Structure formats: C-alpha cells, structure tokens
Amino acid sequence: MATFAPVDEQLAYIKKGSAEIIRESELRAKLEKSRATGKPLKVKAGFDPTAPDLHLGHIVLLRKLKHFQDLGHTVIFLIGDFTGMIGDPTGRFRYAPAAHAPTDRPERRDLQGAVFKILESAKTVVDFNSRWFSKFSAEDFIRLTAKYTVSQMLEREEFHRRFLEEKPIAMHELLYPLAQGYDSVALEADVELGGTDQRFNLLVGATCSAPMARSRRWC
After folding, report:
1. What is the pLDDT of residues 147-192, one digit of tens each?
2. What are the backbone angles phi and psi of residue 127, rounded to the nearest 5°?
3. How far is Cα 60 from Cα 140, in angstroms, rounded to an integer?
4. 26, containing H or E segment
5. Hey, which end of the chain has fewer CB within 10 Å, N or C?
6. pTM of this prediction?
7. How buried is residue 218: exposed, middle or buried, by Cβ count under 10 Å (0-12/13-18/19+)?
8. Is the CB of residue 218 less than 8 Å from the CB of residue 143?
9. Is 213 exposed, middle or buried (0-12, 13-18, 19+ CB in 10 A)?
10. Beta bridge partners of 149
11. How far apart are CA 183 and CA 46, in angstroms?
12. 105-115 pLDDT, tens per residue?
C-alpha cells in the first residue's frame, strides 16, 4: 500500500503556481480518500498532437503534473489524436473546419521525448483518445450529445460571441468539449488539469466524470 504525505502538505504543493482549483473541497476529499486507502489519484492532462513543440503554457502544465507525480499519484499524459481531428475552438471567433486525421507519428514521438525531460517516463501513462473514440458508434455519439444542451454550449465565450454576431458555428465544433469531457470518463480520471483557456472544457470533464456518470461510462 502506497504511503502519501499529509493532505494539507499535498494541497500546499499542488496549489503552488495554480491559477484555480475547482473545487478545492472536492480535491481535499479525494486526497483524503487516497491517503486512507493507499490508492493514488489518476491525474490526466490532454495535449494537442498537431503541435510537436512545447511552449511555456505546456511547461507550466507539465510541471504541475510532475507535482502530482512527486506526491505519488498516477499521471496520464493523453494525446488527443481523435479530438485533434475536430479541432479545439478555444480562442477562435470564427468557423473552424475539421482537420484531417493526424498521421505524423514521428512528431508525436518527439513531443513525448520533450515531455519526459520533465516527467518520469517510467511513472507516466501515455494514452491516445482514439483508443476509445475509434470504437464509438453513431448511437454512442447520440447518447453523448444528449447530455448537453445548446444553451449550455453557448455559455462558452467563443460560441456566445459568434452567436451574437450571427457568425457560423459548425456542428463538429460543439463536439469538442463533450469529447474532451468523455476522455475523463474513459480514463476514470480523478483530477483533470489544463490551462485557464480550457476552463469550459475542464468543467465539462468534471461533470462527465462524476461518480454516477462513471459507473454508466457516460457523461
């Protein structure tokens, strides 16, 4: 059974450099349960496979993953090769066409090589979200989209602005937050990390990975 540092000590370490924790009380409860059972938390962060180079935003996120790793928790480095085909609408105030399936495997290996300069490779789980989405049927996607309303999607700044300006919003763009949210369900993640620009997507993930949703494998 793994031994973890006191919860207050873990929280203090996790909070260093963090812009926001949603919600700290829930994270504390998960850390307390983890310490009591000796079971590490699953901590997931997703990365765009179309960008082989790391920028400062990536480094900040990777260092926070390393903090969880230092505390003894399981880190999942998720490569969004399926969601990469949809394209993240974050920061886009115009219609974004769907991308082609990424085929640049060497670039993905380069990205992982850069990541392991920060994370410990032996203690890092690397996964691809095409592993579950490639098995999704049309019925599966209908069930997934039924869990969120158009009104909820329009709360996202990019979509809300385009709607008010009568600019097009493609249907596939609305799938991105749901697909990213389902990643947390598929991985049974306890904690999701991301930049402040990913707040909306992360909140969808937090909703999807609630205990009841997890037991049904649906958000």
Report:
1. 888 888 888 888 899 899 998 888 888 888 899 889 999 999 999 9
2. -140, 165
3. 35
4. helix 24-37
5. N
6. 0.82
7. middle
8. yes
9. middle
10. none
11. 9
12. 444 555 666 78
